[in-house]
Amino acid sequence: MTTHQRWVFAFWVYLGILFSIFIAAYLQIIPTEISRFPYYDTVLHFLLLGLAAYFSHQALRKRKFRILNIPVPLAPLIVFLFCIVDEMIQSYVPYRNADWVDLAADICGIISFTILAEIFPASNNK
């Protein structure tokens, strides 16, 4: 298995985990014990979406496109767009709430983990 194939595999496994957490949150089956930790929601937003940006950026071989001659990483942008959609959906669900702090944590996590992915050695086909 090549390094790139490992990143793709890791991305799909993580996406499955993230999707499971997403569904659990909307079905209200997340254990209530987690709420004992201060700022757990904000920390989880930072970590979960940051890791999604990291794995997707690696899986897409750090692909970028240019906007006004500025290179923009494709995968983290897609993760960010999904964050926006999720926060919009939450505003319509009675037992969920859209929160600017959560969105800020998402953005900080995406940026931080994208920087880590850029620093990490490029994946190759070896």
From TrEMBL:
Domain called VanZ-like: residue spans: 40-119
Listed transmembrane segments: 7-31, 37-55, 67-89, 101-120
Coiled coil: none
Keyword Transmembrane: yes
Keyword Transmembrane helix assigned: yes
Keywords from the named record: Membrane, Transmembrane, Transmembrane helix
UniProt name for this protein: VanZ family protein
UniProt organism field: Okeanomitos corallinicola TIOX110
